Amino acid sequence: MIDSWLALVRVPGMKPDTYHQLLDVFGTPDRVFAAGAAKLGKIGLNSELVSAILDPPRNLIEPDLEWLQQPNHHLITFNDIRYPERLKTISTPPPLLFVRGDPDYLQLPQLAMVGSRTPTASGRQTATEFARFLSSSGITITSGLARGIDAACHQGALEGIAGTVALVAHGLDIVYPSAHQKLAERITRNGAVVSEHPLGTRPLRAYFPRRNRIISGLSLGTLVVEAALNSGSLITARHALEQGREIFAIPGSIHNPLARGCHRLIRQGAKLVETADDILEELYALLPTDLPTRNARAPEKPQSQALDPDHQKLLKCLAYEPMRIDELVDRSGYTAAEVASMLLILELEGCVVSESGRYTRVA
Hints:
Elements lengths: L1 H8 L6 H11 L2 H6 L2 H6 L4 H8 L7 H7 L4 E5 L7 H4 L7 E6 L8 E5 L6 H16 L3 E4 L5 H10 L5 E4 L13 H9 L1 E5 L11 H11 L3 E4 L8 H10 L3 E4 L10 H8 L3 E2 L3 H8 L25 H9 L5 E2 H8 L3 H13 L3 E4 L2 E4 L2
């Protein structure tokens, strides 16, 4: 019964590896609860956990059962045929998956895309464009609903055809960060929001690295867009490596701290990615042949060659890292008014992006 699956996950001290140990021995949660203290003790459980299993908190599952009565709310157990086969192969897969949206998205070919919570404007745009193109090529984009790169990936993927999956580190009765309420609703309509945690679970820091193993575990590979050396995105990449998945990284300026994590991954063997086609080439052998990827073409970049000489000169002065107008004045020899006017045109043409008074070349 679904009640027993929910009750077992809510037993105090129950961890995914212990849950799987119990399933391996007894088969189902119903049989776990019927086993008795002697049999539970024989498999190495401590007395405190045995006592907790013998007195399961069944009163706590009422909110879960009520939640499951609502449209587009699902619970996928490890024994469910809907449980993703790829996720079953990782170390300590989640025994339960709470899903808001369409669980069929979990069966589609997926690429994890992760990166900094405080990206550059260029990094955010790159994430959006890659996710849009890959989703339009038939690959579902999986990320963590965090600020920055994660959000950009989800937004880009929603503009494609394959949708997006968001893995969160809390119960699905809340949205974190709260600013992503509308984004989560859009994902529910064109993808799925997923958690291994029952309702009422708060987003504790320790849960996010655990969440990352599911992001990579669901996916054929992981693409890191921007990441500092201490970024949580590198935890996702490490999980992907341990799980035997492909790892991709987009390089950046040597002066950009958010590129250093990607550069480290590349030095360690991750595939350097310059276009989305670089990813498709690696994933072709792993994808169903009926996906549109084989005929897909990467979006063309703005044609900076069509700009007049003054705009081309300023564009050459602008690095692929944030620069202020005064720096461009010194570098180009134009006045501040001229630089500001040309930057407006370049931004409208899609050649540069601005953020907090700094401009970054993207074409």
